[in-house]
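Help! Submission page says 'invalid entity' but I think these are all valid:
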Amino acid sequence: MAVCIAVIAKENYPLYIRSTPTENELKFHYMVHTSLDVVDEKISAMGKALVDQRELYLGLLYPTEDYKLCRYGYVTNSKVKFVMVVDSSNTALRDNEIRSMFRKLHNSYTDVMCNPFYNPGDRIQSRAFDNMVTSMMIQVC
Amino acid sequence: MEGLTLSDAEQKYYSDLFSYCDIESTKKVVVNGRVLELFRAAQLPNDVVLQIMELCGATRLGYFGRSQFYIALKLVAVAQSGFPLRVESINTVKDLPLPRFVASKNEQESRHAASYSSDSENQGSYSGVIPPPPGRGQVKKGSVSHDTVQPRTSADAQEPASPVVSPQQSPPTSPHTWRKHSRHPSGGNSERPLAGPGPFWSPFGEAQSGSSAGDAVWSGHSPPPPQENWVSFADTPPTSTLLTMHPASVQDQTTVRTVASATTAIEIRRQSSSYDDPWKITDEQRQYYVNQFKTIQPDLNGFIPGSAAKEFFTKSKLPILELSHIWELSDFDKDGALTLDEFCAAFHLVVARKNGYDLPEKLPESLMPKLIDLEDSADVGDQPGEVGYSGSPAEAPPSKSPSMPSLNQTWPELNQSSEDTAIVHPVPIRMTPSKIHMQEMELKRTGSDHTNPTSPLLVKPSDLLEENKINSSVKFASGNTVADGYSSSDSFTSDPEQIGSNVTRQRSHSGTSPDNTAPPPPPPRPQPSHSRSSSLDMNRTFTVTTGQQQAGVVAHPPAVPPRPQPSQAPGPAVHRPVDADGLITHTSTSPQQIPEQPNFADFSQFEVFAASNVNDEQDDEAEKHPEVLPAEKASDPASSLRVAKTDSKTEEKTAASAPANVSKGTTPLAPPPKPVRRRLKSEDELRPEVDEHTQKTGVLAAVLASQPSIPRSVGKDKKAIQASIRRNKETNTVLARLNSELQQQLKDVLEERISLEVQLEQLRPFSHL
């Protein structure tokens, strides 16, 4: 279950961040922030012309008492990062599912970009995007 | 601040008022100045206003957030109803009428005054689409008739929120309001064709001053509309509550009515028709939208780029966020550009929003762009259905799914086209055994599944055409629906047929060449897209391994030579069984078959050789015969032939040989042969061939039988040895050639494997997607 989903711009400021309200949001924000370092590390590690479209970082970085929070990253070609914090307690989400979720995110993000009224760098306020994210956060529960 | 519960009407009304006050388009904070104006318009004493502000917390916060604003409005309503101002009263007072605000601006008053004057020019500004923002929320014309206000407001509260809330007007239900709007485009189009997007915003402002705008929202076109709506209310059941107000409003709006009556009839009709669908675009509206589209993009089938559309719609002075949402709703194919349909939908949504309707979450069905590009003519806008889109039209921001149907549609077409081309493609007929064919097909299938799905199609038909074309094409078509599965299904289904036919062919092929003097049969004719696994050796090996039948078939050629000698005496017949045994027992080893055939070549030499020794070497030949027999099955036919020939020449010899052979066959194991024989035998046995016990016994028997003739046969042995040496050499060369061919084949296959692996590596990154 995606507990928190964040879209980070190229300059590492958040374009969109949303988490399930049940939890202390600040904690998730912090986790996303710390994961940015890891993401940057991976990006620089590639180096070559080959841009890895999908980066899967399974980090049992923060195993709390009852559940493990796995954070997954995804970088687009324009260095926009998607970070997703997933609660893997009830269902062990397979890699494919995570990838499909990221693909959906990417598609929705592209749709937002297509909107001429959206200035790149603005916060994402698209309702469609919100709906999609909500569906992702709910479905996996 | 406790939670605030609002009815639907209140919700709408408050949101509109908020938007009105939200001139900075922040959606969060309302300018104090506007709010104060509004409160002043509420005709409440100042201290009450201050109290309200304090209660809602605005004074605490310093600004009016949405919640504060709503609370303030509610308190205004409370105050206007005469209830004491308490915080608790927000939620406790039930059925509170909407707060009333008296228009304080001169503009509005003049507007009110003018509302009863038929002012068709008001409609000219912008097809009634964009009411001036300031106009919104103004509403209540307190000056007109206060007494009518009360019943109206009660009706207002019951009606779905019309921000209008003009006392004169019974707030129409949404379809009714749409009715109003629909009229405006007609007026606008006829009266004042707008030069471009820019001007129409301003003319509206001009129209403001002189226009009616009894209700702020529709301001500029309101005189007739209120009337008509009012009239139409009588027709529509939901507005039954408004019926009570009719008498009240009639007296006020007599003047207007005269103006409106003309269009009333049309209105009623239209209203009833569109009552069900508030989002339907009427003809006039559509016409207007199309005209606007033309100003930006002359080609009606073309696109409006996103930037131009942005500029256009920004002039509507809607907040960017809402415009962004409208864009999301209307850009159906998510391409960043607007087609005519999309543009009309967006325009319609802007109109709606301007008039106070909240934007829907999903694109209404009547606004869905149609796939079929209909003309501007009338009924386009009224068609509610979408045509052609197999994807679910219900989703307002369609994901990439709309593109998927198109992909699916093109895919079978692609297959069919390739099928057609494949059938047309000329194909040579294969004469080769099917096993290689199967191999090749497998290679192609695995190699090209992810590279070029059409290539196997081309390859297969080339192979299939020779076979049952109909069957293959049928399977072909059935397999087309599955991109990857068809090739395998085709190959599997068609291969048995090919094998069968090829087998039959092979049999016939072999049958027709009994005296194959040439070296092993030529390799199968290569196909245009043939792999290189087509050498004869593969042919041989695979045909042998496929089944005994084929092996037997292949084995026949060597055995044939003895047969076409029907004239031969029973002598050869005696040998024949032995030969046949030898042949049969040794059919499993394919290399033997090949050397068998060269022996046909040797056959002639051997015959000559044999003929030279025929007189003296009957027994020797007879002996050699069994000696050669176990060693070299290929030589059996030769020897048997030799024997036959010798027999033909001298029947006595055959008779002699026959008993000798018979004796050979009958005598049991004899003591080891003489050294000479042994030498011969050892030479023969050196050959890496499988020997049967029967053969050995035969040899031994032959040796035994030939013992008495040893001294005489020594000289003959030399020649025999030489002959056998020659034969062995020839067999060697044949085997060497076979070896080289196999090596070549191996190299080819390795190369193919490498290329396939490279392909796989190249395609591996795509597997991530």
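Support: the input was valid. A stray whitespace character was the problem, and the output above is from the cleaned input. Residues 357 and 692 of chain B are 100 Å apart (CA to CA).
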